[in-house]
Amino acid sequence: MDRVSEENYSAPSVEMRYQGVAIRLGTFVIDYIIWGIIAYVVWLAAGLYAVIVFSVIIELLYFTLLLGRYGQSVGMMVVKIKVVKEADYSAITYGAAFVRTILLWIDEFPYIIPFLLRAILIWTSDKKQRLGDRVAHTVVLKA
Questions:
Q1: In this predicted structure, what is the pLDDT of residue 13?
Q2: Which of 39, 60, 84, 136 has its CB 3.0 to 4.6 Å from that of 89, i.e. a possible disulfide?
């Protein structure tokens, strides 16, 4: 079975506009609630140090595997947006998903307002790309 059916990926039409800050903030909240629940369970089972280590691993796996396989995290599935290659709007690779995930930590700076840098980068990009999108050459479109 193919990773993702190629028919789900095509050039953006009028309906498939680049997705901005508000909808992506919604996905952020949904995904981090899920991630937080997993981290809490690990904390109960193994303690604080394990939470820190496992949190990093869980976040890397969660976003890399979901985006690499489906082009969407659970939050993105809920709000019906997806990540695609900037060049041809096809499915992204696991490598691109990994790059986007690593750069989430930079996007979250300043950590007291975790979405601020990400929002500024999206607002200042013609294609509404955050840092991870720019480096991985991806865009977020309506699914």
A1: 56
A2: 84
